[in-house]
Amino acid sequence: MSKPIHPNIVEFQVSGDYALFSDPITRVGGEKCSYQVPTYEALKGILASIYWKPTLIWYVDAVRVMEPIQTEAKGIRPIQYSGKNDLAYYTYLKHVRYRVRAHFEWNDNRPELAADRNEHKHHNIACRMIQKGGRRDIFLGTRECQGYVEPCAFDSEPGAYASTPQLSFGLMYHGLTYPDEAYSAETKGKMTANFWYPVMKNGVISFLRPEECPLHKPLREMEMKPFGSDRNNFSGLSEFEGGE
Question: Is 70's pLDDT higher than 70?
Answer without folding.
Answer: yes
